[in-house]
Sequence to fold (345 residues):
Amino acid sequence: MANTREKVVVPETRLKALGVQAFMGLGLPQEDATDVAEVLVLADLFGLSTHGLSRIESYGERLQVKGINARANIQVESPAPAIRLIDGDNGVGPLVGMHALRAAMAAAETNGVGIALARNSNHFGPISPYGLLAAEAGFASIIGSNATTTIAPWGGTDARVGNSPIGFGVPNPDGRHFLLDMAMSVVARAKIRNALKAGTRIPDSWATDAQGLPTTDPKQALDGFLQPIGGHKGYGLALMVDLFAGLLSNAAYLTRVKSWVDAPDEPQNLGHFFLLIDTRRLGSPQWLADRMNDFAAILHGSPPADASRPVIQPGEIELARMAAQRADGIAIDADVMALLERHAG
Fold:
């Protein structure tokens, strides 16, 4: 395979078509492969390459050992007008995510607000692609998923809490949407691994050792646990995401979630939630655009502490990157392209 640092630049339409063909090669029907490719290509457009089409490696391995169901029969129930329950039938995460997003949109369009709770799913990619799709359709969103456990309970000494992501989106009809997508750890484990390779210490706020005590030693940190953002407040927020995504959806939660690394051939039973508000019920598109533009202008007007880094609101970097890559092509690792082409046949 090519060096992982070697990049190739591919037009969006070609990359999406290749992604669809690759997932069809792994056994998905075309319509389902299209849903998966849409989410993952948006991630690559945003520059979130670790959560983009590179995921075909881990998704593909699990599809091949039947740990993920390539022919998922996803079911949607409506126990109340604004609530949708999605059974993902152990399908690929972004496929379940797209079904849940559409179900929540339909509920919100009818009722003004809608929530979809999904179970029997898998890793569904980053949240910001779903937030963008919701915003483009006029919906404000709060979206979350639970995850494999990598964080110790606050004050504990073993991993019982997932690094569960949550995202928020508010549409701007002018196109400058607010998009916040965040996980619950201070940093990703990759940053700690990089510090170990470089032989440098890490801040004691990043992770604990195996005894649950803060450490500046990256090796001890990798043997220990990630620290949640904001200390005990981040711990509480991680639990809230798991309660909504896992417990209320009737999915697995906390240590009930299977690790796809340790048990790739077993269903994870991850859960997600999609809470949407139809902003068109609140006022006209012009009303919302004016308020969103004023909101951003207030933030942008703050004199920056570093002149080379002006104040921004969440989503601006990703949306600018998306616009640039739509114009110039998407930069993707050469080895990811090779893997896509291999699965596409």
